[in-house]
């Protein structure tokens, strides 16, 4: 009923899982992850508590292979699928002998893909290949694997939901300046194009992370401006990102960049102008030019 991927990013140490299915809100049932421990999936009739069990086994010191082997001794696994990637990049997966066809899994370096009730046996090999060749960060590569599954026919019932969860290599802030666990936690619960919607959400989430970075205490002016520009470029159709980036640039005196962004934000969401006006007032002297421009519109 579902295809999924678990993986560890060898560069950042982040752990991630992505899943799509022809059922409602698959993100509430299949994926789980714990910073510094691992990422897991339990699908195809798996019990919900199996996800926690897998993570607890790995947290206790068991390898991914050991955790999967231990769970595979439980009653009811004949129709089930589950997989683990641990904090060292160890991976393991299980497909029960009675799992709904077409079903299978494949393992790579720090990555496991698994699928059942698929239109084709080509789905999981295509997912593994797509993850390995995709560009971008871990979230983008995970979504690329889901997109590859769709190209091979995906779930025989058609698509409905998808989810992405990425956590850090340890509890607390990451060494590359990212924030605490979870790093990404996104779900598309009901859509005719859940993977496309999930891809868009990744872009919007990155934009909003840039907005947070621009306001981080101690950030340099140049870095703040770069983050604001990246936010606007990354989510050109998101009024919230455009509004916040425009305000941030305006109060820094970069009016030629700011005002076109705000115009776009207002066109997408007229209520954004009310927030921009309030922000201009709060900014005091730094917001005078923004307030004047708003009054003149």
Write the layout of secondary structure elements.
Layout: E1 2-8, E2 15-21, E3 31-34, E4 38-43, H1 49-59, H2 64-71, E5 81-86, E6 91-95, E7 104-108, E8 111-115, H3 123-133, H4 138-151, E9 161-167, E10 184-188, H5 194-214, H6 221-234, H7 239-250, H8 255-268, H9 272-282, H10 288-296
Antiparallel strand pairs: 1-2, 1-8, 2-9, 3-4, 4-5, 5-6, 7-8, 9-10
Helix pairs in contact: 1-2, 3-4, 4-5, 5-6, 5-7, 6-7, 7-8, 7-9, 9-10
General description of the model:
The protein is of the alpha+beta class and 297 residues long. It contains ten helices and ten strands. The protein has a six-stranded antiparallel sheet, with helices on one face. Strands 3-4-5-6 form a four-stranded antiparallel sheet, covered by helices on one side. The longest helix has 21 residues, at 194-214. The protein is elongated, with a radius of gyration of 22 Å.
Low-confidence stretches: none
Q: Summarize the biggest pleated sheet.
A: 6 strands, antiparallel
Main structural class: alpha+beta
Shape: elongated
- Computed CA radius of gyration, to the nearest angstrom: 22 Å
Overall mean confidence score, pLDDT:
94
What is the helix tally? 10
Query: From N to C, what is the helix and strand string?
Result: EEEEHHEEEEHHEEHHHHHH
Share of helical residues = 40-55%
Report strand order across the widest sheet: 7-8-1-2-9-10
Q: Please report the distance between the alpha carbons of the first and last residues.
A: 53 Å
Strand runs, count: 10
How much of the sequence is in beta strands?
Answer: 15-25%
